[in-house]
Amino acid sequence: MTKHKYPVWVEISKSALLNNIIQIKNNVRKSVPNLKVCGVVKSNAYGHGMSLVAGVIADEVDWFAVNALWEAIQLVKETGTQKPIVVLGYTPVSALPDLIEYPNIRIIVYNIQTLAALKKLVLKYKRGFKVHIKIETGTGRQGITEKQLPKFISFFKENPDIILEGMSTHYANIEDTTTHDYYEFQLANYKKFIKVLKENGFNPPIKHTACTAACFLFPKTYFSLARPGIGLYGLWPSKETRLSCLLQGRETLNLIPALTFKTRIAQIKTLPANCYIGYGCSYKTTHWTRVAVIPVGYFDGYDRQLSNQAYVIIKNKRAPLIGRICMNICMVDITHINNARLDDEVILIGKSKSEAITADTIAGMSGTINYEIVTRINPSLPRIIVE
Ligand SMILES: *Cc1c(COP(=O)(O)O)cnc(C)c1O
Fold first, then answer.
1. Ligand 1 within 6 A of CB of 227
2. How many alpha carbons fall within 13 Å on the CB side of residue 181?
3. In Å, what is the CA distance from 159 to each residue of 27, 87, 128, 162?
4. Whole-angstrom distance, CA of residue 56 vs CA of residue 137
5. Exposure string (b/e) for 169-182, b if CB count within 10 Å is 16 or more?
6. N or C: which end of the chain has fewer CB within 10 A?
7. Contact at 8 Å (CB) between 132 and 206?
8. What is the distance in A from the centroid of ligand 1 to the CA of 54?
9. What's the CA gap between 214 and 231, in Å, rounded?
10. Is 162's C-beta closer than 6 angstroms to any atom of ligand 1?
11. pLDDT tens-place string over residues 115-149
12. What is the C-alpha separation between 264 and 341, in angstroms, rounded?
């Protein structure tokens, strides 16, 4: 029985995180020795706990990436990291003054208005900024188009205090396919931008395009910095990515899922046949049933779609969910688990001695991807480091 007081919690394996980052690093460095690696810890480190994860992998990465400027500031405040941090998402113009105190944070720019606002800060505070630009190569989300590029080039020529340190892009179709011509198209576009920038005297030293799937499959995407996220956490970007590795004859890395999502038994009762369980009376017992009530629900990030579908693990045995998942509670059938007791541990995502329920399995049941399953685990739940 666990000693701590939490009804629902997340355990993060330090050795799994280290295994994953070291494997990814060794893998990319086989093609590009000394390639720099950026640990993507946005969105609470994909639900794993941003500062906790960053603390564990800090010695193994050169950069960190987050989505928002406030996350970057939180990362600096909580971990004291001196490493450069790149903000992948949008930084509102009104948030730019926050950069003044944090010289290690780089925003990614793709609006000329953002640069104009930075220029005002340069004049006011008499200091420069390093920025990265994002290139639209075919993903159709943030990024500078070919037509917009000359304006940016003129800006950087006229404003040497705003230093073009990096350029990035992101691939639209690596994870969802085993046919990879679209990435080739995007890579060719990216190279066109490099060429135009070079012709204008710019060669940003930090070129970064490779997410986890690209890290596993395409050394041509590495440039000067790899940017893996999901792989750090021990999850594959998709089945197709794994299949593509096999098809290309690449070694598949031994990733270890770092996260275990747990709760404990809040009540045990035995109900006769023909009893309804939960809201909507969606489940009816067919025999004497031992029911465990567990104190977790969709508030915690345990998706309501899993109702009457998923199972949990108690005492190394599967216990199916019966009835609907409520906001903070759900019920499981433990008729066959005679030794289950109040407060016993319940695994929602993770593995026991010989049973497992993975984020991928749950994602399949919920009609989504493993990224969403782990990312939506409520950030307010405690994250505990194990090993
Ligand atoms: C989230 C993100 C990544 C990491 O992607 P994974 O598939 O998790 O490795 C890389 N680059 C950008 C721009 C991202 O938004």
1. yes
2. 0
3. 39, 21, 9, 6
4. 34
5. bbbbbbbeebebeb
6. N
7. yes
8. 16
9. 11
10. no
11. 999 999 999 999 999 999 999 999 999 999 999 99
12. 9
Q: Which amino acid is at 121?
A: L
CATH, range 14-247: 3.20.20.10
Give me the helices (H) in the chain, please: 14-31, 42-46, 50-57, 69-79, 112-125, 149-158, 181-199, 212-217, 239-247, 359-366, 370-375
Topology of the domain covering 259-386:
Lyase, Ornithine Decarboxylase; Chain A, domain 1 (2.40.37)
Question: Is residue 89 a contact partner of residue 68, using CB atoms and an 8 Å limit?
Answer: yes
CA–CA separation, 290 vs 310, rounded Å? 17
Ligand 1 neighbourhood includes 88 CB (under 6 angstroms): yes
Ligand 1 centre distance from Cα of residue 9 (Å): 26
CB of 211 sitting under 6 A from ligand 1: yes
Question: Which residues does residue 277 pair with via DSSP β-bridges, in sequence order?
Answer: 283
The identity of residue 4, as a single letter, is H
* Neighbour-count burial of 387, counting CB atoms closer than 10 A to its CB (0-12 exposed, 13-18 middle, 19+ buried): exposed
Q: Which residues contact 249 (CB under 8 A, 6 or more apart)?
A: none
Q: What is the pLDDT of residues 235-281, one digit of tens each?
A: 999 999 999 999 998 877 999 999 999 999 999 999 999 999 999 99
Which residues have a catalytic role annotated? 42, 279
Burial class of 219 by CB neighbour count within 10 A (0 to 12, 13 to 18, 19+):
middle
- CA-nearest of 359, 282, 355 to 317 is 355
Hey, where are the domains in the chain?
14-247, 259-386
